[in-house]
Amino acid sequence: MPASLLQPLLAALVPLDGGDGDSPLPNDPRRPFEGPWLQQQLFLSLGIGLTSLLLFSLSRRRYPTLFAPRTKLAGFTPHVANLDAGVFAWIMPTLRTPEPRILHIVGLDAAVLLAFFKTCFWVLTVLSLW
């Protein structure tokens, strides 16, 4: 390997302060967090979350058979679908739906998965506040 290719690599490995160790390395635990990392994390998380929620709400209204296929079966009416009420009208009825009705609509596997998600939400909320 020519010396001209090794110089940038060596310059990255050797500290610029002469090697006396006074300047903290990027992964040094004594170094405080610098930069807008919190704002970036909040912006990305909120952006991805709100975009996903909006896309789900709009696609749920446009393709109701895809998101509630069992409710389109003949003689199967576990709940009144309120697709025309609004884009976000599904949120409160979903939160107020009792467990036996969820079990009847989506089945045992999905009901257990939803109960697991609900438990994880409450545990992480409590731990975040603590």
Described by the principal axes of the CA atoms, the overall outline is elongated
Structural class: mainly alpha
Average pLDDT metric = 75
H/E element order = HHHHHH
Distance between the termini: 55 Å
Report a brief summary of the structure:
The protein is mainly α and 130 residues long. The chain has helices at 3-13, 37-62, 64-67, 91-96, 99-106, 108-129.
Name the descriptors.
mainly alpha; 130 residues; 0% strand; 6 helices; elongated
General description of the model:
This protein has about 130 residues and is mainly alpha-helical. About 60% of the residues lie in helices and about 0% in strands. The protein has one domain. The chain has helices at about 5-15, 35-60, 65, 90-95, 100-105, 110-130. The longest helix has 26 residues, at about 35-60. The model has no long low-confidence stretch (mean pLDDT about 75).
Would you spell out the secondary-structure blueprint of this structure?
Blueprint: H1 3-13, H2 37-62, H3 64-67, H4 91-96, H5 99-106, H6 108-129
Helix pairs in contact: 5-6
